[in-house]
From TrEMBL:
Residues the entry annotates as binding heme b: H85
Enzyme class: oxidoreductase
Globin domain location: 1-138
Positions of transmembrane segments: none
Cofactor(s) the protein needs: heme b; FAD
Protein name: Flavohemoprotein
NCBIfam families named in the record: PRK13289.1
FAD-binding FR-type domain sequence ranges: 152-262
Keyword terms, alphabetized: Detoxification, FAD, Flavoprotein, Heme, Iron, Metal-binding, NAD, NADP, Oxidoreductase, Oxygen transport, Transport
Native organism: Aquibacillus salsiterrae
Amino acid sequence: MLDQKTIDTVKATVPVLEKHGEAITKRFYQMMFDNHPELLNIFNHANQKQGKQQRALANTVYAAAKYIDNLEAILPVVKQIAHKHRSLQIKPEHYPIVGEHLLLAIKDVLGDAATDDIIEAWGNAYQVIADVFIQVEHEMYEEAAAKKGGWDGFREFVVDKKVKESEVITSFYLKPKDGGPLSSFKAGQYVSIRVNIPGEKNTHIRQYSLSDSPGKDYYRISVKREATNELPDGKVSNYLHDTINPGDALELTAPAGVFVLDTTTEEAVVLISGGVGLTPMINMLNTVAEKQPNRKVTFIHAAINSTTHAMHDHVKELAQTSNTVDYYLVYEKPTDADRAAQRFDKEGYIDLPWLKSVIDDNNAVFYFCGPTPFMRAINQALTAWGVPEDKINFEFFGPADQL
């Protein structure tokens, strides 16, 4: 428990964190990686370079300070982060390293303004926050290992099949190398994949949504090739596309994530995806079709055009063979062939007037995933339509950002 003086001191730093949070977290990562370069084998270099990780950590530290006397208020955020930590194999021994360098960064950025009282208060507060994460993650590690077909750490999977879905997206069908059973998962969850790329100093870990429904004898991930492998965000996707073939092995951690389809209800569901954000949506769609065939589902996908659009034939067939599945396509820049074949329902972008024209009413539960600007637009549209906050569900690829 924290005493009142510590709580008051930490809460008093909230305005400072709001102003200097990203500068502190940027300095934090610099100092930590300088002193512990082995942690570069865990953290996503692309998110570091783009500032996403620094921004996400700054938001988390800010929230922790604001709610230091009521950490239960941020428990949903804690659980979301803890899922990612478990998937990345963050362990209790990592927390003292993080705490030490967070305090050093606060002192370094704030200078004399970071008094001994502030540093002491934040040291005490960090320990309480770290203990919450460690306990939540401990339970997640135990749960993942105890499930039938579950495991702890990384497990080798063999690529059973590799399927090109579009000009930019390829699916990999993965089966356990040990021939053992597969752990179950919830529609919408992801796995972490660790690769050793020849010529790279560090291992790379990336998280990919499972793109097919549970209950199969394989896991499927569908990977978008990033523009170039010269940048950190393209290294793993290009390696998978160009180098990994059937018969090759990949290391996976057990499925994780809180962005999951609620299958305890039969209420209408709307799935909206942009680009490769369709991967968890396809999983959810397949799950509804297989497990809840009478549940009304509207599947809306936005893509540049048919050359980048993956899994169209699969979704089209589901819609044609089911009375409960509606399917709509929005192409930003349709090709001449797209126009001739009338492959899409709207040109440009998804907006609220169009959503209202294809969905009967807003009395449904909404799930969406895609690039951050896309999700921001969808979130704003649904909010303007009066969709309750508890009916709006979304997933970021990478560290959580602000919508």
